[in-house]
Specification:
This protein is of the alpha+beta class and 135 residues long. The protein has 3 helices and 3 strands, in the order H-E-H-E-E-H. Helix 2 crosses helix 3.
């Protein structure tokens, strides 16, 4: 490990570019093609992003509360991965908000069988309890 920490590391890649994926989700009522139309233009005019391979926006998963999508593009400078990820995560959120495309938050819907869990038990009935020594 000492040699790895103190020495130089050479990263051999086929091409000196980096693929960057920005994940996001849209509500089921929204249309993925509309999200694509909103998001692809925000990467087109950025000269830090390569035009070949071309940026894409695809559906990746049908999740509990959202249709998950991915905005994928390639960077000319791999050292810009972290700042570009932060920048474009925010840009995606803002572009979707401006286009009134809902980004849902996870939620759960519970169905109680006969609402038995909500019925009061003798232990929970405060009117029948003996006064404590603190009262």
């Amino acid at each position: 490990n000492t040699e790895m920490i103190k020495g130089k590391v050479m990263n051999h890649t086929k091409r000196n570019i980096l693929r960057l994926d920005i994940s996001f989700g849209i509500a089921y009522k929204e249309r993925p093609d509309e999200a694509r139309e909103v998001l692809l233009p925000i990467v087109e005019d950025d000269d830090r992003i390569l035009s070949d391979p071309s940026p894409t926006a695809v559906v990746t998963k049908m999740d509990d509360s959202s249709v998950n999508m991915l905005l994928r593009f390639y960077l000319q400078d791999p050292s810009q991965e972290v700042p570009m990820r932060w920048e474009y995560t925010e840009k995606v959120r803002e572009a979707l908000r401006e286009a009134d495309i809902e980004v849902p938050f996870p939620h759960r819907q519970l169905f109680l069988d006969g609402a038995k869990a909500l019925q009061e038990t003798p232990l929970q009935d405060s009117s029948n309890r003996a006064p404590s020594s603190r009262e």
